[in-house]
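=== Per-residue structure ===
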Amino acid sequence: MSAPTTWQKSSFSGGNGENCIEVGRQAGQIVMRESDEPGHVITTSRAKLAAFIQGIKAGEFDHFVS
């Protein structure tokens, strides 16, 4: 049996965590979920998450939130 996932959320997600995507590590993979839908988990690799974060930092996804 594997250890339970420790979830981490951004300090920008709001006081109650209602605007929150949580991230964790599980069996060498990166897992993500929405705090209000914890049963829906997305699994990805560290490399794919790193590329996504680089795109966020470069502003490639700004049109989704403006």
